[in-house]
Amino acid sequence: MTEVATRQERTGTPGPERFAEFLRVYASLNTRLAYATDLGIPLDWVPGYTAPEPGRRRGRARRGEPTGLEWLHWCVREGFGSFAEVRVQHVERWLEELARAGYRDATRARMLSAVSAFYQKYLLREGLAEHNPAALVDRSAQHLNRSGSSPSQTAMWSFEACRALLLAAHLLADRHRNGPRDRAMVEVLIGTGVRAEELVGVNLDDYHRPAAGGPAALRVHGKGAKDRRVALAAPVADAVADYLRVRAAPQVPALRGQPGLRAPEPMFVTSTGRRVHVSHVQAVLRRLCATFAPAPDAAPPRSRRVREVLDGEQASLVAAHLGPLRETIHPHSARHSYATHAITRGAEPRQVQHDLGHAALSTTEGYLHDAEDLANSAAHELAPALHRGWLR
User: Fold this and answer.
1) Cβ contact 119:134 at 8 Å
2) How far is CA 133 from the centre of its chain?
3) Assigned domain for 257 exists
4) What does 53-78 look like in DSSP terms, one character per residue?
5) Would you list the DSSP string of 360-381?
6) Residue 211: per-residue pLDDT
7) Can you give the pLDDT at residue 1?
8) Averaged pLDDT of the chain
9) Neighbours of 378 (CB within 10 A)
10) Does 354 reside within a domain?
11) Where does the chain show beta strands of DSSP type E?
């Protein structure tokens, strides 16, 4: 039994069933896992969660192992008998401890929002607290304020880097057993800006291509159980079609208690027929970078077929753009890159907002990076006019 559960038995604070009630407010399992992770709720208490097989990585939903500074663990350590005892000064002290432990401001802001939601959407409603101390925190003093329209800190890939990732996945597609699948995943990720969780969550019946060689559409299951359709341009759809031709059909059992009905068949599957885990998306991106731009002390690839690709004339071009991404590449950068490059090429912001599944346009605007603002600055027009005729 976890320390959190032991404390609850001793003090009468909410137990697993209470936290499960709170998490059921959110229809998406990924959202439930995110809140559970930030609050320190054991994942086994999350409704709908199935523990991975022994030896398999938990993946991104876990965001690393517990540090003991998650909200519930911190409250247990501080000796609170109930959440009603917590005051704003306690929350601020918790945030300061997170900062000293090296948590980024964006991470602390997200964790504070999780605590606030826990109070607002459950504890206050159930009469387990009289006020929401997280809502009283001075976010500005804690350096947690960021305008919704200010640029995100997530790194954006240059247009050339996006091309290099697509080319790398193409060159290795027939050099690995799962090459066609990985290439299709990279094409959809970069070509649509979907979230990694949305990418691995699509099923076969979510894909529709009316005519061979033409564009396609993909229904993705976004945050808050909100589905949307994204367009797959013909090159992206071709990559998906190449993968589907070699995809092995998994053995999907019928739904328990419902004879004749079968569970949705995932589009992207492992060699054993299971749905690809979200952690695999980042692993694919890292492998592409490490293959074409390996670390100085990395051993050469064992596969002769891969070495042949690396000896080709296109490999050095790919390496030049993927080398800087090798240590920091993350799938969420694909969304930022999609937003910026699409608007740069004349797409309407409202359409990009729909593509990304953002409820507010200000969220989409926050994905645009300073480079675009600098390139379009009015200074490029004003300064030459001011100096025209006397400065060469």
Assistant:
1) yes
2) 29
3) no
4) PTTS---GGG-SS--S-SHHHHHHHH
5) SHHHHHTTS-HHHHHHT-THHH
6) 87
7) 33
8) 81
9) 7
10) yes
11) 207-208, 216-221, 227-232
